[in-house]
Amino acid sequence: MKKYLLALFVFSAFISCKDNPVSKKIKETKEAVSNTTNAVEEMTKMQDDIKELQETTPLTNEELKSWLPDEVNGMKRISYKAGQAGMMGIASIEAAYANEDKSKKFTISIIDGAGQVGAAATAGMRMVMSQDFEEESENGSRKTVTKNGTKAIEEYRSGNNNSTIQLMEGNRFYLEAKGNNMDLDETWDAIDEIDLDKLG
């Protein structure tokens, strides 16, 4: 009996050790199951959304241009491109902002998920957003987060202090924001400055 209890104790201690391959595999399996469940739930929700988006008229280039702010967090707009994906039937806009000495640069790309093609284009991104993951190395990190009720993907490169944030606004608009010489907090602050609610 004592031998049995000792063996059980050793096994339990082995399982509880964070770095052992058994507990690592269990954790990975749990994450995989969780992500599969999230993906199935997201697919179910998406079916109705996609049907509605397919019947919605995408924003025009003029509407997207009029929405673009002239300045974000003290950085002035230095360029923009509208309708780059227009030939594919997707409404989109891209803009770049920089501070006075150009030491910091913030760029945003918006894709409207309305219309037949737009709905299909943003559906894949929604599936990626439904997953939970986290990666870290000496060069930086990449992970999913939830900010103000919105799921997002954060990516940070420590070597050059560059950050990228991807998110879906209202299950319709896909946003990718990049901050050159800006950490994640600075990039989030810039995103908060642009009024995404006014897009719809």
Describe this protein with a few key phrases.
single chain; 200 residues; alpha+beta; nine-stranded antiparallel sheet; 5 helices; 9 strands; flat; disordered N terminus
Distance between the termini: 69 Å
Low-confidence stretches: 2-18
Q: What is the mean predicted local confidence, pLDDT? A: 84
Structural class category: alpha+beta
Number of helices: 5
Rough shape?
flat
Using only CA atoms, what is the Rg? 22 Å
| Major beta sheet summary | 9 strands, antiparallel
The counted number of beta strands is 9
The largest sheet has its strands arranged as 1-2-3-4-9-8-7-6-5
Q: Can you summarize this structure?
A:
By secondary structure, this protein is α+β, with helices and mostly antiparallel strands. It has helices spanning 2-16, 21-54, 61-67, 115-129, 184-193, and strands at residues 71-72, 75-82, 92-98, 105-112, 134-137, 140-147, 150-157, 162-169, 173-180.
Describe this structure in words.
By secondary structure, this protein is α+β, with helices and mostly antiparallel strands. It contains five helices and nine strands, in the order αααββββαβββββα. The chain starts with a helix and ends in a 7-residue tail after the last helix.
Please write out the topology.
Layout (H helix, E strand, L loop, with lengths): L1 H15 L4 H34 L6 H7 L3 E2 L2 E8 L9 E7 L6 E8 L2 H15 L4 E4 L2 E8 L2 E8 L4 E8 L3 E8 L3 H10 L7
Antiparallel strand pairs: 1-2, 2-3, 3-4, 4-9, 5-6, 6-7, 7-8, 8-9
